[in-house]
UniProtKB/TrEMBL annotation:
Keywords assigned by UniProt, alphabetized: Lyase, Pyridoxal phosphate
PANTHER family named among the record's database cross-references: ARGININE/DIAMINOPIMELATE/ORNITHINE DECARBOXYLASE, ORNITHINE DECARBOXYLASE 1-RELATED
Entry's Gene Ontology molecular function annotations: ornithine decarboxylase activity
Protein name: Ornithine decarboxylase
Cofactor(s) the protein requires to work: pyridoxal 5'-phosphate
SUPFAM superfamilies: Alanine racemase C-terminal domain-like, PLP-binding barrel
């Protein structure tokens, strides 16, 4: 048995998720969306190779992710440098490596692309008027729709190839209407661009496709129906769809195997269960208790009671759940095994480098079906 904690990702589940999404989202009939895997969700070589073979493109956020993909044989034309926050030197390095697609949301970044990646294809990220997601971006990314229009015209005038507008509904978005809002706003931008003789070729609807954790999420089919209908209603015939899933491809393909380190009754009477995995070695998405993972133990079936769940480090913030109602067996003891379901996304990739001396989360990729 590998040393605890560790993550197992079942590659066949990732393949199934990719094929389901590929079949579900299309603008008109057989006009399928281009699927661009958000590498940051799970930068695991075996998964990148699998998705490359399936026909995926890749959304890369840094030179490190670019080099990872290229080193695995991914063609540079399948990469889009989608992070709007990037240094001029990194744009130049990406361009030298063959990357010809970039996203931006400011004039400064646009001018850096013009200088260091001339002639490239660009998408402008705007802040859509969508409802908040479970893990929202706030206003960190995206300009106004009016500014996106201005910047895309400027991009054309400066010699870049305009792909189209780009929005993101926020990570783990539970309201399908969010995509309709973003696509409608994209259509308005596209119409205004057409009046300036710029005919977009794509609308990037970003990621945000949810999976079910403790709280159930809308099914892919429900969201795809909204996306497909909105695209057919609001987008010009020249425009295809780009979707950038991360969580939706890998989230339910992963299971973390961990161990109970100890159980304590605090002075206020609350029971604390300490695990050998915490916020710094895989459970970063429990920040603000945004994501409520499901736990399975060897003692399921015994009486349960509420517990505060915490990680192993000497950091007071390394607490996973103290407001969320987590029910765990009252018989749990140190040394008991515990599994955390649907942990294939944003776990190992968020794991820190030996904080408090605890190693980053180990990843094992299995070709078998999910356990």
């Amino acid at each position: 048995m590998p040393e605890s904690p560790y993550l197992v990702i079942h590659s066949e589940r990732v393949r199934e998720n990719y094929r389901a999404l590929d079949a579900a989202v299309a603008v008109r009939g057989d006009d399928k969306a281009r699927i661009r895997f958000a590498v940051k969700a799970s930068p695991v070589p075996e998964l990148i190779t699998l998705l490359d073979a399936e026909g995926a493109e890749f959304d890369v956020a840094s030179i490190g992710e670019i080099e990872l993909c290229l080193g695995l044989g991914v063609a540079p034309e399948k990469l889009c440098y989608g992070n709007p926050i990037k240094k001029a030197a990194d744009i130049a390095r990406a361009y030298a490596a063959g990357v010809r697609r970039y996203a931006f949301d400011t004039e400064d970044d646009l001018l850096r692309i013009v200088e260091h990646a001339p002639g490239s294809e660009v998408e402008c990220r705007f802040l859509a008027s969508t409802p908040a997601s479970q893990t929202p971006f706030g206003t960190k990314f995206g300009c106004s729709p009016a500014e996106a229009l201005r910047l895309l015209v400027r991009a054309r005038d400066l010699g870049l190839v305009v792909a189209g507008p780009y929005f993101h509904v926020g990570s783990q978005q539970l309201d399908p209407a969010a995509w309709r809002i973003g696509i409608q706003q994209s259509g308005e931008i596209a119409e205004a661009l057409a009046a300036k003789d710029i005919h977009i070729t794509s609308v990037n609807i970003g990621g945000g496709l949810p999976i079910s954790y403790a709280e159930a999420a809308p099914a892919l089919g429900e969201i795809a129906a909204v996306v497909n209908a909105a695209a057919a209603e609001f987008l010009p015939e020249t425009a295809g769809l780009v979707v950038e899933p991360g969580r939706a491809l890998v989230g339910n393909a992963g299971t973390i195997h961990a161990e109970v380190v100890g159980v304590r009754i605090a002075p206020d009477g609350r029971r604390w269960v300490y695990l050998d995995i915490g916020r710094y070695n895989g459970m970063a998405e429990t920040e603000n208790e945004y994501i409520a993972y499901r736990f399975v133990t060897e003692r399921d079936g015994d009486p349960v009671d509420e517990a505060v769940v915490a990680g192993p480090t000497c950091d007071g913030d390394d607490v996973l759940y103290q407001r969320t109602r987590v029910l765990l067996p009252t018989t749990l003891r140190a040394g008991d095994r515990i599994t955390i379901l649907d942990t294939g996304a944003y776990t190992a990739s968020y794991s820190s480098v030996s904080f408090n001396g605890f190693p980053p989360l180990t990843v094992h990729v299995s070709g078998a079906e999910r356990e």
